[in-house]
């Protein structure tokens, strides 16, 4: 395992505290700036994988290197600083309901600010333009001063994403970031995550339910099923047979933004490779 990978997992396994195995022998290596979508049926282990990648959960087997460090060997202060270089996007962002949108977005940089600046920003938002610009990218600039508990689930998801765009981390880990968005907004939002990675050089890993979104926006797809990597391939090489095998437990349907569709009647604008 060398230091230059943005993320390296080697033979990683995870058994949850209740004995449930979530991951087995997962080996993945991402170069800095790489963009990877993790796809797979429900329960495949996508969330578990991202939590391990973000040093939120410790693997029970194997080795993990994150931005050149081995997170679980760091003292608490260094682990905190490492986590501040990672942007986590959750399906349901853990944002206190009474917080204003602007404060939630500015919180993206709390880990990098001094204690005094962080406290001052909580009392009096310091970078209104910066927060507004991040929200505008997700078509939410008009909700800047709203309270988060006045937002819909999809709006809240976009606030969580704006927070990470504002944070500008080196590694973005997005766990089903667009599950509550309509197809047009989902496309916009995933496009903005990809643009952020292109513009800043950030490495991006996103778990996605919608196969068409993954194929459209990502260079590389990792298919996960029952805790194991079924394939790890450039998007252009992901074939219908590979997807069929990955989603075999879900019948003949592939999950997409436009709704499930039968593999046999594949008419969606998927890259040519996926229609083979
Ligand atoms: N905290 C937990 N305790 C025990 N088992 C868990 C826990 N979290 C997840 N699991 C189990 O680990 C396996 C993988 O779950 P995980 O949430 O990682 O899958 P997923 O691919 O993200 O699923 P989904 O697409 O439905 O969100 C599942 O069998 C799940 O039941």
TrEMBL record:
GO terms for molecular function: ATP binding. Pfam families: ABC_tran. It comes from the Bacteria. The keyword Membrane applies. Residues 7-251 form the ABC transporter domain. InterPro entries: AAA+_ATPase, ABC_transporter-like_ATP-bd, ABC_transporter-like_CS, ABC_transpr_LolD-like, P-loop_NTPase. Keywords: ATP-binding, Cell membrane, Membrane, Nucleotide-binding. SUPFAM superfamilies: P-loop containing nucleoside triphosphate hydrolases. This is Phosphonate ABC transporter ATP-binding protein.
């Amino acid at each position: 395992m060398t230091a230059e990978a943005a993320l390296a997992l080697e033979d990683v396994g995870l058994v949850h505290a209740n004995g449930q195995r979530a991951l087995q022998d997962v080996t993945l290596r991402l170069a800095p700036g790489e963009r990877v979508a993790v796809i797979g049926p429900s329960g495949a282990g996508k969330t578990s994988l991202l939590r391990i990648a973000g040093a939120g959960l410790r693997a029970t087997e194997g080795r993990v290197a994150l931005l050149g460090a081995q997170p679980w060997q760091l003292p608490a202060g260094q682990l905190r600083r490492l986590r501040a270089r990672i942007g986590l996007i959750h399906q349901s962002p853990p944002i206190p309901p009474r917080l204003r949108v602007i404060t939630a977005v500015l919180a993206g940089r709390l880990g990098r600010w001094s204690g005094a600046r962080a406290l001052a920003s909580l009392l009096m938002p310091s970078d209104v333009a910066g927060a507004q610009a991040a929200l505008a990218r997700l078509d939410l600039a008009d909700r800047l001063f709203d309270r988060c508990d006045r937002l819909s689930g999809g709006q809240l998801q976009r606030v969580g994403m704006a927070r990470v765009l504002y944070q500008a981390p080196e590694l973005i880990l997005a766990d089903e970031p667009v599950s509550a968005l309509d197809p047009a907004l989902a496309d916009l939002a995933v496009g903005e995550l990809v643009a952020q990675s292109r513009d800043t050089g950030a490495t991006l890993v996103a778990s996605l339910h919608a196969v068409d979104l993954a194929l459209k926006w990502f260079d590389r797809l990792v298919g996960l099923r029952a805790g194991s990597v079924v394939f790890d391939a450039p998007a252009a090489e992901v074939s219908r047979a590979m997807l069929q095998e990955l989603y075999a437990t879900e019948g003949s349907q592939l999950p997409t933004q436009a709704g499930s569709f039968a593999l046999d009647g594949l008419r969606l604008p998927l890259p040519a490779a996926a229609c083979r």
